[in-house]
Known about the structure:
- By secondary structure, the protein is of the alpha/beta class.
- The protein has helices at 3-12, 31-37, 50-67, 83-95, 107-120, 164-167, 172-182, 185-199, 206-210, 214-220, 222-226, 230-250, 259-274, 281-299, 315-326, 330-337, 344-356, 358-366, 372-381, 395-404, 414-420, 424-433; strands spanning 20-24, 43-48, 70-75, 100-105, 125-128, 140-145, 148-153, 159-163.
- The protein has 22 helices and 8 strands.
- Helix 13 (259-274) packs across helix 20 (395-404), helix 14 packs across helix 22 (424-433) and helix 15 (315-326) packs across helix 16.
- The mean pLDDT is 92.
Amino acid sequence: MTLEERVQEVLRRRLSVTRRVDVGPGAVRRLPEAIEALGLPNEVLAIAQPRTWEAASAALQEAAEAGGMRVSVHVTFAEAATHEACERLGDEIRRQPSLLPVAVGAGTVNDLVKLGAQDAGVPYVCVATAASMNGYPSSIGAVLRDGLKCTVPATPPVLIIGDTDLLSAAPPELTGSGYADLLAKPCSVADWILAREVAGEGFEEEPLRIMDGVVEAVVAAADGIAALNHAGVESLMLGLTLSGLSMAAAGTSQPASGAEHLISHFWDMLGHRDSWRLDLHGRQVGVACIMISALWERLLSLEEHDLTAALGQDADALRYDVIACYGDLAGRCLSQFSRKSASHSAVAAHVGRARGKWADLRDALRAIVVSPARMRDELAAGGAPTTLAEIGRSPDDARLALRWARVLRNRYTCLDLAAEAGHLGGWIDELVAEVC
């Protein structure tokens, strides 16, 4: 089954709000037809950033003229999907209730319109301008609230257009970001299984079936992706779409987001707080994947007797360290963290469960994760960065992230098990060396 056939199969099964996906050359020209087929208004409100409107405006105007579609334009200058920007956009959409919102852009624009349209209670359409991330069809939006990036439930677009004429012309860094985002799957799925077995978190098999063989198919197209040719970028966009659909089917981002994404979110958080120059989220994720693959390699080399709860640090000392790292954001992070590791007894229970089923669990996880060397090679093949220097981060930035990113979310990952069993601190320098 091809990636395109897999996408259409998932859509037929109505596992998501998304009802139609068109990825390929000239897909924007088919937008009026797709809107009509879905019974949506043919008067649209195209919402874009200046650079994304510049990239897509000619194709959209041509499609509108040929298909009898009327286009109004709202240009947003928001550089991030902040809570305030999403609310303002929701108000703008409500002011024009007869117009169909169409997100014209990539990650930030899609999150803005996804959350703004949900706030206004209307469906929306997405015209992607870059194969830069897997969030287009996901049922989750990323919003920046008071300096901390949060994930919130959100309604996906009913229609996604991925015109490879546009996608292939996007900056290569954006395409590399999408490729790296997709390659997180072995790390994230391993974390999701670990969370089920150790922390009792929810788990669904269907998202894994959706993604079966998808990453391998996209990696096979890595040369074309790096060269930005149409076939390679089409494979990537279809793979990213399936990844987003797997999240929508799960009702959580866990099939595609684990410890490696927490590290990128941690850097984003410090960047917004301390005015760093941030790289693209997916590019940061890719570098983090190498470190997390190395962490998995070390975890899975442990024997049962190596899994003993490390209960040396009391809650007050931990709280002090988190405040020192997170500053004003510490309270919100600790409220998340305390829900998964609130006490010594919770830590002991996690490690005890892991030890009790370690032989079988370790075998299952070994079948999923990949070595840091393989992760590095596959990232490089698709044009994604593999070192801290390439994303503007220092070894100290990586050490901080490895130690403290786990505090960001109420989500159990390999970072938690490594810390709770007393090994993470001793491994950090080795993990950082993998990306220097």
